[in-house]
Amino acid sequence: MAGRLGARLLLALVWLLHWLPLPLLAALGSGLGRLLFMLAGRRRRIALRNVELCLPELSPAERRALVAQHFRWLARSLLERGLLWHASPARLRRLIRVEGDVGFAERHPGQAVMWLVPHFVGMDVAGVASQLFQRRDVTTIYQRQRNAVFDAAILRGRSRFGQGEVFSRHDRVAPLVRAIKRGTIFFNLPDMDFGLRDAAFVPFFGVPAATLLAPARLARSLHMAVQPVLTEMLPGGRGYVVRVGEPWADWPSDDALADAARMNAWIEQEVRRCPGQYLWVHKRFKTRPPGQAPLYR
Description:
12 helices, 9 strands, globular, single chain
């Protein structure tokens, strides 16, 4: 009961804050991020370890500075979730700039389409853009939350414009496949460690990482066009940029492992371009190859 009450109070605060101008909300989020960096010791250690593994060329001081920056972006994304869940479509269109071929799916109504969206902190902005800047329905998969209040809030927020369905990762795949066949864009988040079910160890920054093979296999079985999509949060509360790439010409191939390697290489490239906004607090290397020691203490 106390957990649900706390969740409702927090969600009420997020709703209140969404009325603020974005530069002020961004400043509050950055301040919260500084506090979280000091208090959230476990997540700070995970992020520092990830950066150490992925960017070993950085000195300890540079790694710490990068993780401190990441916490500021992460806290901003949490507070600014209220904008995505409650702001008017007109305000969101003013704040979100879309670059690239966002209308590809709309111009090709008979083509199954996947948006490949890695875990940068602003990824939910891409979800809003997929609903506001083109007219095809969008479906996605989410990780069910332990707290029922937060779980319901995420479902409402991600489906607030009524375009498409949100499936739990624990659901059967058949309803998702049916939705895609009906013409719904699949908003796919491919870069988390969910163990070795339908996954393989593929290098990510040179470290073996349990990488999902399902995105390439699904795209191949349904003859999907796959567009890489990235979101960047702009400094100073200047809004967001969603970059929608052209469909990959030769992905998927006949080799799911090679496809996973190419996907990871693309994500690496984007992480290097915007390192502070990648989701470093996730245990990306939690699952280890047989006989290898854990990477997180």
